[in-house]
């Protein structure tokens, strides 16, 4: 029996026109909202370079502030996603962006570590439902054969947000520092928080909850799409949550996401600091932001192209295991690259860079490659999730796996910052001429930065090694058995 999507017009021209309409009217506004959300949650990674000396914060405190966002972010994932399923995306997603923009802009007012923690918590509460709500919302407008690529396009907003956010934040700090008596980092939060308010107002006005609300859809197409919509929710929230928790594969998906987020957000949060430690003292901060953003710009293209290719192999060629192999390969490969980067830092120790702050640059190449590899996994991961979880559990399962998995963004940066402060060896003046060392020390004091790159080595190694082990166990023991049971011919098990 043909699916509802297959019953739509067979005309290639009509399908192309409809795909463009859905892309511009549905996908692009959500992409833009997530792009702004990601800028607001990640701009602390650049702003902290100037915040640290001005507010007297340690790396462990900044790591906690960066990661605490994920604690509050995780708590409202399931309820907010249930609301999207229950009352529609327009009001929920629009309201989320309004509160997100206000919370992000208010971060410009912080005066202490305590106030920074409070506002990061508020920002996490505000953003909690946007990403999982969009994943659920898109699954009700696009056919399964296109959903991996569509999810990858949507998720590319976080990579573009990292690139643009890093570069623009650094430019704001360099260009507006001291304007109207405000430090540059305060301008970063103010100017990058306000646009989310405007997009939130647009979503409240223009985003349709269902095809019947979309005046730009023709009557025949509207009726066909409306027939495909599931009921608001087939189970109350608590029974759906209990059913989700009773499935072992839920915990496998959760652990995969948690371990990946530990590594990914630790790298994203500390990358600008690591580059700043390696770069010559004469580099402007805007150039540091540009270098930190380049891996995320590359990720936009790799994630979208790879997702489209994987969808084509999985649907047209019948290669059912493509998505699960890609999801595991991406998260495992990224962890291996980060692990190798940490081992390089441990091995190299302190190596003076003329005119700079010391240490090997080779580990930055590995970190730069890990970021686009990690971002390949988003489309395949959610394709695997949708295949393994029953449709009636999608709303709750997406929120549960994404919410608790995202707490890796709390654990990872805090652990990395704490290990940076406690493990060594600390930077020592070994190697290089005394004049060069004196010049480097003078530049270091002038910029109020006391980090050396080798101090990160053990922290990166421990974090990536633990994440890789968790990913392997989750995949081997929980995710793969469920996938093999689903796809094995005549019930025969498939060996990994």
Overview of this protein structure:
Helices cover 75% and strands 0% of the residues. The protein is mainly α and 496 residues long. The chain has a single domain, classed as MFS general substrate transporter like domains (Growth Hormone, Chain: A, Up-down Bundle), CATH 1.20.1250. It is globular and about 65 Å long.
Brief summary:
75% of the residues lie in helices and 0% in strands.
Topology:
Blueprint: H1 12-42, H2 44-55, H3 59-75, H4 77-87, H5 89-106, H6 113-127, H7 130-138, H8 144-176, H9 184-206, H10 219-228, H11 237-245, H12 248-278, H13 285-315, H14 322-348, H15 362-375, H16 378-388, H17 394-405, H18 408-422, H19 434-447, H20 457-487
Give the percentage of residues in beta strands.
Answer: under 5%
Let me know the CATH homologous superfamily: MFS general substrate transporter like domains
Mind telling me which CATH architecture this is?
Answer: Up-down Bundle
DSSP helical segment count? 20
Uncertain spans:
1-10, 350-359, 427-451, 490-496
Share of helix, binned: over 70%
Mean of residue pLDDT?
Answer: 78
Distance between the termini: 33 Å
Helix-strand sequence? HHHHHHHHHHHHHHHHHHHH
CATH class value:
Mainly Alpha
CATH topology: Growth Hormone, Chain: A
* Number of domain modules: 1
Shape: globular
Instruction: Round the Cα radius of gyration to an integer and report it.
Output: 23 Å
Number of strands: 0
Oligomerization? single chain
Which class do the helix and strand fractions yield?
mainly alpha
Largest sheet, strands/sense/barrel: none
């Amino acid at each position: 029996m043909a699916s509802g999507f297959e019953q739509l017009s067979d005309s290639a021209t009509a399908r192309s026109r409809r795909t463009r309409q859905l892309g511009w009217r549905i996908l692009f506004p959500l992409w833009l909202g997530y792009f702004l959300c990601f800028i607001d949650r990640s701009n602390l990674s650049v702003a902290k370079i100037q915040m640290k000396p001005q507010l007297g914060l340690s790396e462990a405190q900044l790591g906690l502030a960066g990661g605490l966002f994920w604690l509050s972010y995780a708590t409202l994932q399931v309820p907010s996603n249930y609301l999207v399923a229950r009352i529609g995306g327009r009001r929920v997603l629009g309201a989320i962006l309004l509160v997100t923009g206000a919370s992000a802009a208010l971060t410009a007012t912080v005066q202490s570590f305590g106030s920074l923690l409070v506002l990061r918590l508020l920002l996490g509460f505000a953003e909690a439902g946007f990403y999982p709500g969009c994943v659920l919302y898109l699954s009700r407008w696009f056919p399964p054969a296109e959903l991996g690529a569509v999810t990858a396009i949507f998720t590319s907003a976080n990579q573009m947000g990292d690139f643009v956010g890093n570069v623009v934040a650094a430019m704001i700090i360099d260009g507006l520092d001291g304007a109207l008596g405000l430090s540059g980092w305060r301008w970063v939060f103010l100017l990058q928080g306000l646009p989310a308010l405007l997009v939130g107002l647009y979503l409240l006005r223009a985003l349709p909850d269902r095809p019947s609300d979309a005046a730009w859809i023709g009557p025949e197409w509207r009726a066909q799409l409306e027939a495909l919509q599931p009921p608001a929710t087939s189970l109350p929230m608590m029974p759906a949550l209990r059913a989700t928790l009773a499935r072992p594969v839920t915990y496998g998906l959760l652990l995969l996401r948690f371990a990946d987020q530990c590594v990914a957000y630790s790298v994203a949060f500390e990358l600008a600091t690591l580059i700043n430690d390696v770069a010559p003292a004469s580099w402007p901060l805007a150039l540091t932001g540009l270098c930190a953003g380049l891996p995320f710009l590359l990720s936009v293209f790799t994630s979208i192209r790879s997702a489209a290719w994987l969808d084509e192999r999985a649907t047209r060629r019948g290669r059912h295991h493509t998505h699960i192999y890609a999801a595991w390969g991406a998260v495992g490969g990224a962890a291996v690259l980060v692990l190798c980067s940490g081992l390089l830092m441990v091995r190299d120790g302190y190596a003076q860079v003329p005119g700079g702050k010391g240490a090997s640059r080779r580990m930055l190449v590995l970190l730069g490659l890990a970021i686009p590899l990690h971002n390949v996994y988003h489309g395949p991961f959610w394709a695997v999730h949708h295949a393994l979880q029953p449709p009636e559990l999608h709303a709750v399962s997406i929120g549960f796996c994404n919410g608790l998995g995202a707490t890796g963004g709390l654990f990872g940066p805090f652990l990395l910052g704490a290990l940076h402060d406690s493990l060594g060896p600390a930077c020592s003046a070994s190697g290089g001429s005394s004049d060069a060392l004196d010049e480097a020390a003078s530049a270091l004091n002038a910029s109020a930065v006391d980090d050396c790159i080798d101090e990160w080595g053990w922290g990166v190694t421990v974090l990536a090694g633990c994440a890789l082990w968790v990913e392997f166990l989750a995949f081997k023991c929980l995710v793969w058995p469920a996938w093999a049971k689903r796809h094995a011919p005549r019930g025969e098990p498939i060996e990994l």
